[in-house]
Amino acid sequence: MKDNKEVTIYDIAEALEVSPSTVSRGLKGHQSISSDTKKKVKAQAQKMGYRSNIFAKNLRRKKTNTIGVIVPKLNSHFMSSAIAGMEKIANENGYNLLISQSLETEQKEKTNVETMFENRVDGLAVSLAYDTNDLSHFDPIIENDIPLIFFDRVGYYKSAANVIIDNFQAGYQAVTHLLEQGCKRIAHITGNLSRNVYEDRLKGYKKALSDYDISFNPEYLIQNDLSDEAGVEAAKTILDMKPLPDGIFVTSDSPAIACMNTLKKQKINIPADIAIVGFNNDPIASYIEPKLTTINYHGTEMGKVVARNLINHLKGDYNISVTNTIILGTELVIRASSQRKP
Amino acid sequence: MKDNKEVTIYDIAEALEVSPSTVSRGLKGHQSISSDTKKKVKAQAQKMGYRSNIFAKNLRRKKTNTIGVIVPKLNSHFMSSAIAGMEKIANENGYNLLISQSLETEQKEKTNVETMFENRVDGLAVSLAYDTNDLSHFDPIIENDIPLIFFDRVGYYKSAANVIIDNFQAGYQAVTHLLEQGCKRIAHITGNLSRNVYEDRLKGYKKALSDYDISFNPEYLIQNDLSDEAGVEAAKTILDMKPLPDGIFVTSDSPAIACMNTLKKQKINIPADIAIVGFNNDPIASYIEPKLTTINYHGTEMGKVVARNLINHLKGDYNISVTNTIILGTELVIRASSQRKP
DNA sequence: TTGAAAGCGCTAACAC
DNA sequence: GTGTTAGCGCTTTCAA
């Protein structure tokens, strides 16, 4: 930043022989300024190459028009879509996004929260890291009345709003679908069960089974980190099961695909021998063979909802913590990997 | 943000019966302060729940420790990786990222630049929108000595640094590979040729052909917007060509795959009838059948390089515009879609 | 090693 | 409709 002589409202005031306040008011179209002066002020500002000093403004107004965003990883299909959605809404409303990633660790997440706090974001949107247990690092945020929204991976935390999908319903739907296709022994591959998303999907899985009078078999529950390697490992575990499961509900597409490919290599026929349902509707899901049945939910939409709520709250339109949880719809996308009947 | 009584250095000064300047110095570990006072100051700050006011600081220091990033779209594999890379480096160096997307339009890009300027980012990293022609909206950036780096999709613009991959070389390599596989009639599907990336890849394509004494046939050059639909259309165009091409170099994976699938439906054997090479090494490339040969380049790496250079420049380690263009390596990933020989 | 004081550029309460 | 004035909280020169 060049430090030689930025043009200030004083310079404009001087040139126009009015007071700085008149300039300040004129610039932002304050009502009690004659439209004549307004025009003059703006013209002069333009002419002198004036740009408002945002620090001074923030210093006075105590707000930044910036929304902080902390996500586990920026480069996933879902997250980048969610951020794209937030960016769009934020931008339309004159807000900026300050973005950081926790890289799935609680430690980094804490630092991120501090940074956001230091930078005095007006609001904060967070999707929790994989291993975050303690949420006390959000205390300063709440204590300072900074509106906080968790999205997708949310925590049980006072006075924060949540934007999530109906994970229970989605899990229920996925497993019911498998049951309808005639599956009797359905395995479930999932992640850290203290994350709401996986916990709720598991509940949906159990409920669907019980609705079909099938009792939950803990052996069929495989828990890992949902990496591709974990998908391969899970496939091996499943191949060792006796009797062999005839259906799998995997709580993420990418390990689902890794798992499916491994099974295929062992001459397992998908979906005839084992039907598979994933989660996320990643682009890959419709590119592989057989195409993967999965749960679709719109990241962009979720991002928009998050930003919209945060901004409405900041504008004072309504209080965010009243609307405590917003649940977005999902849909089951049925493709070849699970479809046994026409 | 709560507006009731934030703790300031004055409060600390008062409590400790020292001057504000001493507190200011103590807090940042200034050399000319006794380590005893430093300790006291820090302890007191901690005790009173002090947090520095970043606006006041910025107002004085005229810098924000923020780097602006403008990309066409956040939610592509490459871009989100690049941003993840930047975020990492920025964060390690105490910088924040202010991110916005141009959604591929020059108009939005202009607004974004203005916003970045208004927000006084210390540096700016930009990947150009698909349809940006005129670069004059970057003039204020340069005029105010804000370091500017273009990455991936760069422009010919004075005093901005570029971080790119060697598109010429990559195109050359891709096409040479097709030629080595025995292709004689190679079509090329590409995008807006006023974007360096596509322009240079085309040059590489031509050079490879000429090295094999094959003259460039403009009929084989298909230009579109690189969407999936465009890939399907391109496939149809190709099917109408007589003689049929026996190789295609597509300058992006996703239309390459759309194109390949369309060809497959018409009973074209890939790679026997037509060999295909894509570009980007998107995750899908290795999931489809046949797996797609493509050019790999690391978004994360590029993001890191961009951030590192910007920050080094800001720290005064060296001048960015001297190192005008940084070229990162790519590699050809040979997979089934192009491999005719073992 | 510490303090006094000026000022970064803007806003808004209050006065006219 | 416009001007005066007092800060917002911090840094930094200069002086002690």
Give the topology.
Two copies of one chain form a homodimer.
Chain A: H1 9-16, H2 20-27, H3 35-48, H4 54-61, E1 66-71, H5 77-92, E2 96-101, H6 106-118, E3 123-126, H7 139-143, E4 148-151, E5 161-165, H8 167-180, E6 186-190, H9 196-211, E7 221-223, H10 228-239, E8 247-250, H11 253-265, E9 275-277, E10 294-296, H12 299-314, E11 325-328, E12 331-333
Parallel strand pairs in A: 1-2, 1-3, 3-4, 4-5, 5-11, 6-7, 6-8, 8-9
Antiparallel strand pairs in A: 10-12
Helix pairs in contact in A: 1-2, 1-3, 2-3, 5-12, 8-9, 10-11
Chain A binds a DNA duplex (16 and 16 nucleotides) through α2 and α4.
Report on this model:
The structure is a homodimer of 342-residue chains. In chain A, β8 (247-250), α11 and β9 form a beta-alpha-beta unit. Chain A has 342 residues and is α/β, with parallel strands linked by helices. Chain A has 12 helices and 12 strands. In chain A, α1 crosses α2 (20-27) and α8 runs parallel beside α9 (196-211). The first copy, chain A, has 3 domains: 9-59, Orthogonal Bundle (434 Repressor (Amino-terminal Domain)); 65-165 and 299-328, Response regulator (Rossmann fold); 167-297, Response regulator (Rossmann fold). At the A-B interface, α4, α5, β2 and α6 of A face α4, α5, β2 and α6 of B. The structure holds a DNA duplex (16 and 16 nucleotides).
- The radius of gyration computed from the alpha-carbon positions of chain A, rounded to a whole number of angstroms, is 26 Å
The total domain count of chain A is: 3
- Beta-strand fraction estimate of chain A: 5-15%
Number of helices of chain A: 12
Q: What is the name of the CATH architecture of the largest domain in chain A?
A: 3-Layer(aba) Sandwich
Percent helix range of chain A: 40-55%
Structural class of chain A: alpha/beta
- At the fourth level of CATH, the homologous superfamily of the largest domain in chain A is Response regulator
Distance between the termini of chain A: 65 Å
* CATH class label of the largest domain in chain A: Alpha Beta
Low-confidence parts of chain A: none
CATH-assigned fold name of the largest domain in chain A: Rossmann fold
State the order of secondary-structure elements of chain A, H for helix, E for strand: HHHHEHEHEHEEHEHEHEHEEHEE
User: What is the strand arrangement across the widest sheet of chain A?
Assistant: 2-1-3-4-5-11
Give average pLDDT of chain A, whole number.
Answer: 91
What is the largest interface, and how many residues per chain? Answer: A-B, 53 and 53 residues
- Largest beta-sheet characterization of chain A: 6 strands, parallel
Say what oligomer this is.
homodimer
Number of strands of chain A: 12
Overall, the morphology of chain A is: elongated
